[in-house]
Amino acid sequence: MQPKVALDKNYWDKRYQTSDFGWDLGEISPPLKQYFNTLSDKTLKILIPGAGNAYEAEYLFNNGFQNVFVCDFARSALDNLKKRCPDFPESQLLESDFFKLNEKGFDLIIEQTFFCAINPALRKNYFEKMYELLQTNGKLVGLLFDDVLNADVPPFGGSAAEYTPLFQNLFSALHFAPCTNSIPPRAGRELFIELLKKT
Ligand SMILES: C[S@@+](CC[C@H](N)C(=O)[O-])C[C@H]1O[C@@H](n2cnc3c(N)ncnc32)[C@H](O)[C@@H]1O
User: Fold this and answer.
1) Each residue of 11-65: pLDDT tens digit?
2) Residues with CB under 6 A from ligand 1
3) How far is the CA of 51 from the centre of ligand 1 (A)?
4) C-alpha distances in Å from residue 100, one per residue of 1, 97, 138, 165, 171
5) How far apart are CA 19 and CA 108, in angstroms?
6) Per-residue confidence (pLDDT) for residue 2, from 0 to 100
7) CATH code of residue 136
């Protein structure tokens, strides 16, 4: 798999500016909503990288989680969140390349359609960066596609067997199984993951 376009901030920003975002659910993802509703500690430091329009961040913030950060290098996506959620702190909108993020010490990092959007050659770097950003006992939680998908433009797919060797030295899988409450178009095509940073 080799991307035929440069997957840089201009590429992604243009997609928001032209409303070319077929991945966007227009609301919080149901599996993540269900997971968030199990969390009782509202002081958790949470990162949502490649957050896009960030309905998950909006939900968390409106439900009392004040320590939520979003990272995206597409400014238009961050602006969209800010328009819907004006009280979201500017300092927690990280307009940055994920791989260059400096903010660390997260308790929880949320994945949804970010992993499938990056160049597949960077997948090992993705897990290494997640490891670096999480604090001891931190977790990477969310959804990964379990489907072949595209070869040249995002979304890039994969399978549990392909993903596991990329993270197993760094994370223990507390949960790594087919998602049971995906939105209908993604049903049977997603894994729900809960990966604990190894010490
Ligand atoms: C397919 S979209 C998913 C957005 C959101 N997670 C969702 O589910 O709606 C991928 C997002 O990742 C962002 N992105 C891609 N590569 C990135 C990188 N290296 N650093 C920061 N953001 C990145 C894009 O700008 C885009 O908003």
Assistant:
1) 999 999 999 999 999 999 999 999 999 999 999 999 999 999 999 999 999 999 9
2) 12, 23-24, 50-53, 71-74, 77, 97-99, 112-114, 117-118
3) 6
4) 23, 5, 19, 23, 21
5) 29
6) 75
7) 3.40.50.150
Cα 48 to middle of ligand 1, angstroms: 10
Collect all residues with Cβ–Cβ distance below 8 Å to 142 and sequence separation of at least 6: 32, 110, 111, 112, 192, 193
In a domain, 127, yes or no: yes
Mutate to test the pocket of ligand 1, among 29, 69, 114 (most ligand atoms within 8 A of CB): 114
Indicate if the pLDDT at residue 114 is higher than 90: yes
Residue 1: predicted pLDDT? 57
- Distance from the CA of 12 to the center of ligand 1, in angstroms? 7
Task: Give residue 101's domain range.
Answer: 9-19+28-197
Question: How many structural domains does the chain have?
Answer: 1
Ligand 1 centroid from CA 53, angstroms: 9
Pocket test for ligand 1, best of 8, 25, 32, 73 (most atoms within 8 A of CB): 73
Taking the CB of residue 174, how many other CB atoms lie within 10 A of it? 11
Q: Is the peptide bond before 120 cis (omega within 30 degrees of 0)?
A: no
Q: Where are the alpha helices (DSSP H) in 49-107?
A: 55-62, 75-84
CA of 114 to the centre of ligand 1 (A): 5
Task: Name the pTM for this structure.
Answer: 0.97
